[in-house]
């Protein structure tokens, strides 16, 4: 197995699928010649040609609409939206046109599209480059939402997303792109959509997270362990479909849980997860399930973002509150 | 003048009269509650029938919400058009081999789909053309500019067909843009732009044939602005007397595409009032048959709806079915 960072793992997944399926196309702003602003597609145009991997004019709605039109003609588009804040320009095409195509046509057409976008804070980027907008997507019927936390998952989930016959919003955390290298299986490695991963086993409390927050949660778990608290950490991997069974199984064991998300607190993934825990596991709970999240403000780029983002200390505090309830 | 045989000219007239009769009947069916949302088409038969007739069945139609006639003449069974109006999913289940998308509600979204479809044709080296429709209001949407700009940049085989009927629901064209014409907007995208009389079905056929030929030969996209008029309100819940004068409506009635083309065919001895009467009867019978078929189609269920969201229904949706 090769050692790769997340960017290399994503590129590897894209290459595997471009090679395997001539219907796979990859396009967006600056993805062709230079391989995107983060070089996730570097070298792919040289390898597969300008017909398969190409730059578009700068217009996110048209990038989304192009993908939908191509999907109706049997292609499998991978459309890159350069930074997460730019999806606002493409919301109709992503969350209405692609997400409703199967319903609107009674299954005659479908949209096997991956909308890739980098997101997530802590890298001192410009305004509207690093927000966490998964909440918009999870409330939208008809689109799957994937948020990998490590290189191997990024590759395996990306290949599954490309092969999926429905649209997938694939969110790549900026702060994980080059954070670390890990072993990544070669070739056609897949991780199924809708299956969470218990990344650390524990018995006292369950910490549910996704994306970069998985790593923040692990740091918190290390801190908790120093005080003799054994925390289980679940990496959701995909928010839609949500693997509620893995969450419930964990809570049946720990009887306590907290949910960590980088996004603003209200009406996000954490709120939905807690609602489902209430529906399926309330009798196993010894304490209310708390959220550790960003406050309900705009995302403050650069200067105070580190203070804004959930930290291991905030997770430890919430865990202790839950344990002492 | 397009190069059409006498039989083809008669076929165009047949389709226009059929469409007018269908529209009259649909308005009544709407009032009876047998159709849902319906956008009337009378007055625009020249642009709708003519533009579709100029293409081949292999070409691909991405319509706006009013463009049901193009879909039906391209091959969508009429009862499915009625089912779509009623909110039944089978209305959008386009039969295999019929190259159309469902009517689009978000004004302008289909412009980008046609651009993508055209790119698909180009990538597959198919000599096919995509056509998409919008109105004068739609020409103000960002998607309109984005689509044309992409088509210019990638040199795509696509026709952007704007039916300028003078009003975006109630807003008059004069308030829509300060541009001299919609056709001028093609210049900014580096594609062809032409403006035609949309009440002249032969002018419509000529313009679309020429645009399609250029597109098929690799010459890229064309924006066609066809000036037309809808005789009826925007929809059945709109009152056109609040924003249009009787005089203006009467003036446009004089340019009725059916009357103009009918007179031309009569002068050539190809059409008569009896022909019109016969087609009307045929159309009425067809509408009756298809509305019955629509009404007899198996009803939609919420469980079926749930299963139409994804290829494989995920567990959370499977669970939600239990409530229905």
From TrEMBL, chain A:
Residues 4-179 form the Transketolase-like pyrimidine-binding domain. One of its GO terms (molecular function) is oxidoreductase activity. Keywords: Oxidoreductase, Thiamine pyrophosphate. The keyword Oxidoreductase applies. The keyword Protein transport does not apply. PANTHER family: PYRUVATE DEHYDROGENASE E1 COMPONENT BETA SUBUNIT (PTHR43257), PYRUVATE DEHYDROGENASE E1 COMPONENT SUBUNIT BETA (PTHR43257:SF2). This is Alpha-ketoacid dehydrogenase subunit beta. It comes from Cohnella ginsengisoli. The lineage of its organism: Bacteria, Bacillati, Bacillota, Bacilli, Bacillales.
């Amino acid at each position: 197995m090769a050692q790769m960072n997340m960017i290399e793992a994503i590129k590897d997944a894209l290459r595997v699928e471009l090679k395997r399926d001539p219907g796979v196309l990859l396009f967006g702003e600056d993805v062709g010649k230079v391989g995107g602003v983060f070089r996730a597609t570097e070298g792919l145009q040289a390898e597969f040609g300008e017909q398969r991997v190409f730059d578009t004019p700068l217009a996110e709605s048209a990038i989304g609409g192009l993908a939908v039109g191509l999907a109706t003609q049997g292609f499998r588009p991978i459309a890159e939206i350069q930074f997460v804040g730019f999806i606002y320009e493409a919301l109709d095409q992503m969350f209405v046109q692609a997400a409703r195509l199967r319903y609107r046509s009674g299954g005659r057409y479908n949209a096997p599209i991956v909308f890739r976008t980098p997101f997530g804070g802590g890298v001192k980027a410009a305004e509207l480059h690093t927000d966490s907008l998964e909440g918009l997507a999870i409330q939208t019927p008809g689109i799957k939402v994937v948020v990998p936390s490590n290189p191997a998952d990024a590759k395996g989930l990306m290949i599954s997303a490309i092969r999926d016959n429905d649209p997938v919003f694939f969110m790549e955390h900026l702060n994980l792109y080059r954070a670390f290298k890990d072993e990544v299986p070669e070739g056609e490695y897949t991780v199924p959509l809708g299956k969470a991963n218990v990344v650390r086993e524990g018995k006292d409390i369950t910490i549910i997270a996704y994306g970069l927050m998985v790593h923040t949660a692990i740091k918190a778990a290390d801190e908790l362990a120093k005080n003799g608290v054994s925390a289980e950490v679940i990496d959701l991997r995909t928010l839609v479909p949500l693997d509620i069974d893995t969450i419930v199984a964990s809570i049946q064991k720990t009887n306590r849980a907290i949910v960590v998300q980088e996004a603003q607190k209200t009406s996000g993934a954490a709120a939905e997860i807690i609602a489902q825990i209430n529906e399926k596991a309330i009798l196993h709970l010894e304490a209310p399930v708390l959220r550790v999240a960003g406050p309900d403000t705009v995302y403050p780029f650069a200067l105070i973002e580190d203070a804004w983002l959930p930290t291991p200390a905030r997770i430890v505090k919430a865990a202790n509150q839950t344990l002492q309830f | 003048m397009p190069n059409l045989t006498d039989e083809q000219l008669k076929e165009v007239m047949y389709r226009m009269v059929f469409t007018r009769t269908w529209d009259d009947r649909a308005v009544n069916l709407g009032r009876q509650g047998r159709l849902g949302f319906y956008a009337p088409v009378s007055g625009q038969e020249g642009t709708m029938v003519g533009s579709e007739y100029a293409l081949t069945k292999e070409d691909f139609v991405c319509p706006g919400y009013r463009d049901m006639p193009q879909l039906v003449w391209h091959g969508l069974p009429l009862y499915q058009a009625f089912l779509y109006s009623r909110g039944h999913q089978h209305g959008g289940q386009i039969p295999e081999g019929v190259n159309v998308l469902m009517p689009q509600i978000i004004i302008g979204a289909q412009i980008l789909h046609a651009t993508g479809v055209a790119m698909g044709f180009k990538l597959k080296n198919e000599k096919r053309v995509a056509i998409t429709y919008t109105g004068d209001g739609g020409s103000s949407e960002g998607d309109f500019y984005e689509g044309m700009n992409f088509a210019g940049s990638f040199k795509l085989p696509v026709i952007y067909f704007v039916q300028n009927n003078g009003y975006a629901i109630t807003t008059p064209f004069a308030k829509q843009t300060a541009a001299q014409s919609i056709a001028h907007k093609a210049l900014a995208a580096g594609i062809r732009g032409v403006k035609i009389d949309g009440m002249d079905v032969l002018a419509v056929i000529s313009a679309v044939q020429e645009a399609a030929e250029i597109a098929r030969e690799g010459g890229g996209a064309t924006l066609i602005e066809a000036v037309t008029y809808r005789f009826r309100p925007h929809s059945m819940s709109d009152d056109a007397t609040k924003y249009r004068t009787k005089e203006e409506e009467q003036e446009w009635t004089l340019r009725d595409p059916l009357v103009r083309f009918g007179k031309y065919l009569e002068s050539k001895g190809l059409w008569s009032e009896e022909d019109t009467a016969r087609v009307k009867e045929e159309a009425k019978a067809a509408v009756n048959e298809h509305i019955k078929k629509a009404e007899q189609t198996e009803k939609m269920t919420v469980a079926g709806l749930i299963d139409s969201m994804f290829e494989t229904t995920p567990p959370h949706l499977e669970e939600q079915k239990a409530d229905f």
